[in-house]
From TrEMBL:
Pfam families xref list: Orai-1
GO MF term set: store-operated calcium channel activity
A biological process term (GO) from this entry: store-operated calcium entry
Protein's name according to its UniProt entry: Calcium release-activated calcium channel protein 1
Location(s) in or outside the cell: Membrane
Family membership noted in the UniProt record: Belongs to the Orai family.
Length: 233
């Protein structure tokens, strides 16, 4: 009976481990696909804005655009395209290896996927595409407004658009902070739940020992209630 119960618990533990790895694999794949699509779209928009931007005036005279605005436009466009191309390159290189594992449709080959070893590259591509890239795109829009409306001698319009974009920038930062804060709390609660399940599994296997999850110590129970031998895990 104990052997059967032990085998059942072991199978459940292995199933939970495989399920966690499979969910992580699908999440990493979804991040890379979203990063590749977003980066390809926004880098294309940036290149179109650079090509279509007419720095000449209809009257043939030089535009009253300051050198600092043009320099900011050049730097922002270069960073925007470079960041998105880096994210696109990472996604393009990693995605085929993950798709090849998922196409096998076997849980035994999940460990062959590089999503764990290349986790930092996946997170970096996700950050480049959805955080840094979007912030640079907002800045790019503001600079294009300055160039376009300065060319038609509308000095008040760029300030209005800049104020609106600044408000959107604040909302963007607030949402990003709130989202990742709640996501971190959610992952912490899930991890704590898994640790509690492991503690219950360990307690069933070795009733004479207990684990303190919060402090990460192993307690050895004795006949005396007041005496415990504490061993650091």
């Amino acid at each position: 009976m104990n052997k059967s119960h032990h085998k059942t618990n072991t199978n459940n533990l292995q199933y939970d481990t495989i399920s966690c790895s499979l969910r992580q694999l699908h999440l990493s794949r979804a991040k890379l696909k979203a990063s590749s699509q977003t980066s390809a779209l926004l880098s294309g928009f940036a290149m179109v804005a650079l090509v279509e931007l007419d720095l000449g005036s209809s009257s043939g005279t030089a535009l009253p655009i300051s050198r600092s605005v043009l320099l900011a436009f050049a730097i922002c466009t270069t960073l925007l395209v470079s960041v998105h191309l880096l994210a696109l390159m990472m996604s393009t290189c990693i995605l085929p290896h993950m798709d090849s594992v998922l196409n096998v449709r076997s849980l035994e080959v999940i460990n062959e996927s590089p999503h764990v070893r290349m986790r930092w590259y996946i997170e970096l591509a996700w950050c480049f595409s959805t955080v840094v890239g979007l912030l640079l795109f907002l800045l790019e829009i503001a600079i294009v407004f300055w160039i376009k409306f300065t060319a038609v001698q509308e000095s008040s319009v760029p300030w209005i658009t800049t104020g609106l974009l600044a408000l959107i920038f604040v909302v963007f930062i607030g949402f990003t902070y709130t989202f990742y804060n709640k996501l971190s709390l959610h992952k912490y609660e899930l991890s704590k739940g898994r640790l509690e399940d492991l503690q219950q599994y360990f307690s069933k296997m070795q009733p004479d020992r207990d684990i303190d999850i919060e402090n990460g110590i192993q307690l050895e129970k004795t006949d005396k209630v007041t005496s415990h031998n504490i061993q650091i895990i």
